[in-house]
Amino acid sequence: MKKVILCFLIATAYTASAVPLNSVLSENREHSRVIEFTDDEGVARAVDIDEEPDQDLLDEIEHDSENLYQLFTRENPTTPQTLVIYDVDSIQNSNFSPDRKTVVVAHGWLGSQNNEMNALIRDAYLAQEDVNLIVVDWKRLATANYVTAARGIPAVGRALGEFLQFLSNKHGLDYNEVHLVGFSLGAHLVGNAGRLLNGQIARITGLDPAGPLWNINSNRLNPTDAIYVEAVHTDGDTFEGLGIGADVGNANFYVNGGNSQPGCLTLICNHNRAYRLFAATVTYDHLVGRECSNNISLTLNLCRGDRLNMGNTDIRKSVSGVRKYRVNTRRNYPY
Fold first, then answer.
1. Residues involved in catalysis
2. Structural domains in the chain?
3. What is the rounded CA–CA span in Å between residue 132 and residue 122?
4. Which stretches make up the Lipase domain (predicted)?
5. pLDDT tens profile 118-151
6. I need a labelling partner for 229 at 20 to 30 A (CA). Which of 2, 15, 185, 206 fits?
């Protein structure tokens, strides 16, 4: 009898430890009121997620998002060309080509066009493929308080969708050759862009999609926002994590279990690891997930299902339904 009770308690503990990954509780959980992010300069910012939003800014963003679109190609790998929606000359006078794949990268809260993530992904992609790489700078909203930025994400996402619609209608952009990549709040941003285009975009990659204020938010990234939606989870701790830690894509990769990363001592290190891992996979395509049958196998590193490479540049990746994978990495580049 004692053995039966012990087994029950162990199973219960394992189940509880898996809750943050994807369960009814994790879908409806509340994060701690105060969380900490780090800006582009490495300065830590305490964030009160009950802070009042800046409604005047939200009203302005709704009418004019002021997104900045910076194009990089192999012809101009480090010096951007500015693309302007509805300005035909800005496109025609640039190196944009509809014959190339188009990769769009969106930073997270407190970010800008100049942050580390954009440079890592840009350089990795252009070394591998001749693509149109467009960096979305939504700094005006991203530098507002977190609550304001989160509420404004649908508007800036729709603005990106309208920009891609303009490129398609006037300049031959093929949605089947478009890959949207977003980090943290940027993951929900690109999800809203894909939604505006009725899920016609070939692929979306969400890099540790933001968690605070998004667990039961209908505007978050979801599996129907593109033909294939992939999420990379690196900091999905139940109450403190900066990532969402729940299945928001067709393929959901929980790196080292999805909550903490080897070599990291802070939440922001865990969170930022997502874009560093992705950049590494663009170069090496070496991180392989194993499908997990349930949360217990995910938490205990017992996933033995089908293999699927995480990240990379493959625009034709696909899985049916919604699936979760565990990926194990090392602490140092290329992980």
1. 184, 208, 271
2. 2-327 (3.40.50.1820)
3. 10
4. 63-314
5. 999 999 999 999 999 999 999 999 999 999 999 9
6. 15
